[in-house]
Amino acid sequence: MANIIDYIxxxxxxxxxxxxxxxxxxxxxxxxxxxxxxxxxxxxxxxxGVTLREAAQALLERGLFSLAMxxxxxxxxxxxxxxxxxxRFGAMRVCGYVSxxxxxxxxxxxxxTFIPESGPAFIAFRGTDNTVxxxxxxxxxxxxxxxxxxxxxAAYLERAAQExxxxxxxxxxxxxxxxxxxxxxxxxxxxxxxxxxVYNFDGPGFNEAVFASQEFDExxxxxxxxxxxxxxxxxxxxxAEPFIVVRSDGVGPLQHNPYTWQLMGGSFIRVSERSSSSRxxxxxxxxxxxxxxxxxxxxxxxxxxxxxSASDGDDVASLFEPRxxxxxxxxxxxxxxxxxxxxxxxFRALGTSLVETVPGFVDRAAEEIRQxxxxxxxxxxxxxxxxxxx
Length: 390
Hints:
By secondary structure, the chain is of the alpha/beta class. 47% of the residues lie in helices and 14% in strands. It has helices at residues 4-11, 23-32, 52-62, 73-84, 87-90, 132-140, 148-163, 175-185, 189-192, 208-211, 214-219, 276-290, 294-309, 322-334, 337-382, and strands at residues 50-51, 93-102, 107-115, 121-125, 168-173, 195-201, 223-228, 243-246, 263-264, 267-268.
């Protein structure tokens, strides 16, 4: 099966003016937001900018590739080489790159703008990188009405709209997809009207307050959410828009990696539904969150983050170094009783949520199997001799 690199080889000689940006192009550009464009494309979009071909070549010369959590160095190099050699992507201008991590504000944010020779500009928001504070901000989305990166995403779109006169497509992978949707939802009316589409690739939804807002209703029809069949990240929190389920050749959580998403021609290969494990996870987590007041969610997340922050690890991988593991264990031992109780109660509630969800889930799964079997039998009985169904 083909992936996004194969797509560039197949369609890379066709300019955007001939075939406008589609869903696979959007994933390519969204993933490219993970690249570190410092001193390459951090100028304002009102200027000339650099081409994506020049940016990709500079990144290849640096030997610096994606800052995504997925370990895909070899694939990142192949992607950059394919982009640099293509007509479709290579001529795009890259500008407006920003990236910053603020431990005090519990914020990790990055975005970049791609401007094709014709058609809407594409703003790509980076997903969670490997910083601990980036993961903390993700969890904060479960209880906070607005996290810092969401405010920054909306502000970034406002600035881009001042520098660029045309229309926009927004996109991102993982948290970046959620930020793209948030920016569109809370843009001022005239900017919101200039947003044609939003692509959320396996990114979480929103908490109950945002989901229920009038602002969300105004743009939800323009939000396209794609998830692999065993999605874990994209099913978190609340979505109004339907999921478009994509076939992935990854295993379990590794399906979050965009290189595992399968496509044919200019479209992803769809499957009819998510896996049973993905649906069970969604039901369990939503039931759990619905039973936890926002303040309780905040206490649990803050308590866990305080323990992790006791180490010297700035990124997720360094947390597993022996010296940091010891620091985390000491911090666990020193945690006050009230915080320990809060965290223990929350995880006990998660276990209860799972236990309560499983029976109903099993009953529905069994009924789905019975109905599917009944349809297959009916189809076989109605088929003329010598024909097959399928």
